[in-house]
Amino acid sequence: MILNERNQSGGVTFILLGFSEYAELQLPLFLGFLTIYMVTVLGNLGMVLIIKVSPRLHTPMYFFLSHLSFVDFCYSTAVTPKLLENLVVEDRTISFTGCIMQFFFACIFVVTETFLLAVMAYDRFVAVCKPLHYTTAMSQKLCSLLVGATYSWGVVCSLTLTYFLSELSFRGNNIINNFVCEHAAIVSVSCSDAYINQEMILVSATFNEISSLMVILTSYVFIFITVMKMPSTGGHRKAFSTCASHLTAITIFHGTILFLYCVPDSRSSWLMVKVGSVFYTVVIPMLNPLIYSLRNKDVKESVRKLAITILLCQ
To answer: pLDDT (tens digit, 9 = 90+) per residue, 184-222?
Structure first.
């Protein structure tokens, strides 16, 4: 990745204000975010480990879930440590390279999660609507290709947006009224014409959101139709229970993004932007493993067996 030499040689830095205007809340916020991050790391890496060591979880659904947990861990880690640091130190600066790289990695994993949730919706569609062909339709090769495609598209989007950001010019210290190097915040402090960057993020975000939501909505429309044709209420309950965790994760993730970027006036309030950014970069990565573990009997049973095994080995 080539960064603008003018910005690096000119000693350009960014100051992440974060929540500095709430001086009395710095310690409570630090303890709260630290607790959330610890739960995020333990929950997501624990989910990856449980799926890896439990043979009963070696299915396409849990293969995708393990990657969702890995992505959640990664994009929380790209953001939260710097947030925690800025809550306990007075110097809230971040270098030009550091800011651009933070955006680069966070963007990769947010875009990857957007399409990974769509892939998981397609997996549920095949499981409910074509159960007899599920094993052959969702082969290991196809699952790997789908996951690889989500990561690849995340990298492509992030590289494109980061390249155009790196071409902008900045002078000296630039104050960003957020805790993260978000695209709009970086563009807002540039002294260059930001038209291309604004158009790029608009096109990219619109395409990613609409295309992923179309896959999700189409999959669940067919799932709903199929379930309604089932003769017994027991069948209805079982089918919907397999989708409940995924639907909850989708609603929280896409609901937050749509509110933050599509609701009128939500972008005009920097406090709203900060709260929304906290939710989808810090809180959601913690919630996903809790949602899937608390609502999933297979995961709870695997955790129980793993715990018993560990106790017996001691």
So the answer is: 889 988 888 888 988 898 899 889 999 999 999 999 999
Count Cβ neighbours within 10 Å for each residue of 4-30 and write b for 16 or more, e otherwise. beebeeeebbbbbbbbbeeeeeeeebb
Locate tokens 């002294």: which residue?
A: 191
Q: 288: which 2 tokens?
A: 């996903």
How many CA within 13 A on the CB side of residue 209? 17
Alpha carbon distance 34, 91 (integer Å): 19
- Token pair, residue 91, equals 């110097």
Distances (CA, A) of 9 to 163, 181, 199, 303: 18, 20, 28, 52
**Helices 60-88 & 96-129, crossing angle to 10 degrees?**
150
Q: For the chain, what are the domain ranges?
A: 5-313
User: Do the bridges between strand 13-16 and strand 93-95 make them parallel or antiparallel, or are there none, so unpaired?
Assistant: antiparallel
> pTM for the complete prediction?
0.89
- Residue 38 main-chain phi, psi, to 5 deg: -65, -40
CATH pick for 5-313 out of 1.20.1070.10, 3.40.640.10, 2.70.70.10, 3.40.50.970: 1.20.1070.10
Amino acid at 229: K
**Number of other residues whose CB lies within 10 A of the CB of residue 101:** 17
